[in-house]
Design goal:
single chain; 56 residues; elongated
Length: 56
Amino acid sequence: MPSPKKYKKITGLFERATGGTDKFLNACWDTKYLATTDLDRARHEFRRLAKQTLAS
């Protein structure tokens, strides 16, 4: 079972990802839709969004 410290890290990531911007959530939605037509490009976009979120 993960330690409480790891749960805090995960919680912090979710808060950063969803806490401030509708732009981020819209980008996630667009990328999920993109996955139905171009899976490779969608994977690239999800990785880019994750890196962008972690960097902020």
